[in-house]
């Protein structure tokens, strides 16, 4: 019984410390809709900026997005078709 309890605690401790890949977990997450539609003249100032660690999720089948680097080498995203959002740790 003692061995089972110790093994269970060891597994829980391992899962707790490794749940964020060894890094710090964000305190909360924020879901941001990607509302910027890609346009013909590629006005990237209207596109949604991406940050390190952002996760893009599609909310509809056949969603198509485009990711670009703007003039300052920042990544920005826009929607070609469908619906998508960004999950961001804050």
Summarize the structure.
This protein is an alpha+beta fold and 90 residues long. It has one helix at 2-18; strands at 29-33, 48-49, 55-58, 64-69, 75-81, 84-89.
Can you describe what's shown?
The protein is built from 1 helix and 6 strands. It has one domain (26-89). With 90 residues, it is α+β, with helices and mostly antiparallel strands. 19% of the residues lie in helices and 33% in strands. The strands form 2 sheets. Strands 1-6-3 form a 3-stranded antiparallel beta sheet, with no helix packed on it. A 3-stranded antiparallel beta sheet has the order 2-5-4, with no helix packed on it.
Give the oligomeric state. single chain
Strand order of the largest sheet: 1-6-3
Count, helices: 1
Output mean pLDDT.
79
**Count of individual beta strands:** 6
The percent range for strand residues is 25-35%
Supply the number of structural domains.
1
Question: Residue ranges: pLDDT <50 for 5 or more in a row?
Answer: none
Describe the SSE topology.
Layout: H1 2-18, E1 29-33, E2 48-49, E3 55-58, E4 64-69, E5 75-81, E6 84-89
Antiparallel strand pairs: 1-6, 2-5, 3-6, 4-5
Main features:
90 residues; 3-stranded antiparallel beta sheet; 33% strand
